[in-house]
Model the fold of this input.
Amino acid sequence: METAGSVELSRKRLPPSASADAHLARYYLLHALAAMFPLSAGAMLYGRRGLSLMALLVLTTLGCGMLWRRIGRRGHALRYGQLLWWALLLGLMLPAHLYAWAEPALCPEKHAWAIVVGAAVVLAGVSWAAGPSGPMRLHPVLVTYLMVQALFGPLLTPRLVLHYSHLGVGELARAQPLVGPAREQAWISDRLHSDYDAIRLERTAAEKLTAYTRAQREDLRGVMNLLDLVSDALPSLEDLVVGGHPGPIGVSSVVMVLVGGLFLMYRGLIDYKIPLYCISFAFLGVLLMPVPVSFSQDTVQYAVLLTALRQSPLEIGAFAGYQMTATPLVFTAFFLASSGTIAPINPRAKAVFAALLGLLAAAAQLYVSAALGPYLALMVLGLCTPWLERWWVPRPLV
Amino acid sequence: MGKPLEFPGGLAWAPQALAGRARFTDLAGEEPAAAPEPGSLDELLAMGVGGDRLAAPDVPGQLRRAEPGVRALVCNLVDHEPGVALNTLLGLQYARELARGMEFCARRCGAGRVMVAVNASAAGSLPELLRLCSGMRAVWAWLPERYPRGHASLVVYSVLRKRLKPGTCPTTIGAAVLDGAALWQIGRALAGRRIDRVPVALRHAGETRYALAPAEWTAGKLAEALGVATPAGMELYRGDLAARVPAQEEAIGHGENRFHLAQPLHISPAACTRCGWCVQYCPTGVQPAVLLEAAQQQDGLLAEQGGLRSCIECGVCEHVCPSRLPLTAAIRTLKQDGNRRER
Done:
């Protein structure tokens, strides 16, 4: 068949094909390829548990999708490629220890694996209920995750990660509890006993950040000011960037999330504006919003970090860095916020959306929860997308 | 003039040299008896200069309204469909006629400026035309190959930096836009020939054939005369990419003069994934996804917000859509509904 002459799209684009289904399948396959980067980090950091959880989630979602496709007109609009992509995203947001059956070392809940299956069923159902992607402003993955979080919140907090000496092959259940200052618990440390494969932390960096910014002093012993927090209480930034700190399967390694996101941008699947503006404005938001800088016996002193930047640039820079890396902000910016299901479609509205998301995410991280802040912010802002599209209408060229 | 303005979006393509020694095949037969040279635009129009093409809308209407004078005459010699170099071949084979047509129109319209828009890759192919036009002080705009650059609205935007809504006469913004076919017809008339044939191009199986065909022929008859069989499952369209309009019975004299023999596009509308590629690649900044939603909801206000009036129906949105949505058809339906409501 003669296609469009020799018109060459940018080589990043999919070539035109006769069948829409093949075209869409390849479109979502490219998205799935981008997810392989954080997934490979997850496989290394969480071993077979991480991969098994992903497989269970993806297969269950696709199986449920097969059933939902038979129901009504909305069923016909469900695409396996889209379900696969959304299942991968949800899997990346869940902790690996959920893949457990009566293993108290991993999870106190006997049938933790059922949470994964339930999440998959809910995801397929929400995808069906949301209908075609056009008018939808709620991301099914976000809705499902927050629902699971609301029901099983404490069980979803990740506390385990494989030690670097047992990457990919270790068993998450054989974890050595670490006590002592966080800085001495660096992931790269060689202090792991030979009987253990993984490390367990009682408090994650996100929990400590939330306790600090919400001035929950009873949860932060020995932390009197910002310097104490960033230099003693929190793990090294390198751990968070590389992934040596417990977190969700695909979110804990910020560098691999970045690589996956850059792949999406390179292939033209997402607009660079959204992650760029979101992360930039979140960084700015952290500097502009009041946070505790010191605790005395009865009072908490708040300050806007930007005003103190000259006096303590390293501390403040480190604090902002922790807010970027110990939270799912980067993952949200690249993989969730850039999705067409939730972001506006025209460039101006996209830029405004991303900037507002960054600021809202910063506020939610600081004052609600560092681990959930970006998700909550995205959920709220997604509902405003129709208005953003109406207010920021681009002027046509002619 | 300054550097021509670029428009966002569109589809870049690699320039292709004219295949071998491409020439126009004269299908119109013997030249009839000579006609008196027209002395005015009215006499020229009476001879039958025709055409309402995307590259030159409503040629007779423009010439009629241009008589009091326009500020700029834009000679649109841009070939924006890959493999179809109709204007370039006209400039190569009939440079004299084109130059005469340009000079006559510039003088009669009282245009203060003459702008000639051509493909950048055609620079080396038109020495004769360049030489003949040197006395007119024409300004040449060498435009990179990008679909749908040859559309009158985008040419006016690129070279005159003005906005011309699709479907409106260019004289409303003080310009006249004539394409190669119109200028060639005028040039022939000035040489005492009758305006009874139209330069056309027919593309099939990666090959383009150029012909001078009688103005009253249909596209189907043209294909037959060129010996291009229409295999089962293929149809004649005007317009490339997804902006195809079935044109088997379309008369070539007063409409588009580029035809494609191709299979119908397989439209299997899946749900819109809101990938945003249609918005990103649209050359005029319209929001095709919003227009599709407006068509589905029959919402005229949403259609206006989406930029319906600025859509030039180039088909780029449909071409890049991963869901193969029938965007161009939806936009055409919206426009028809809008026109019906206005009447």
About this structure: Chain B touches chain A through 62 residues (CB under 8 Å). The longest strand of chain B covers residues 197-204.
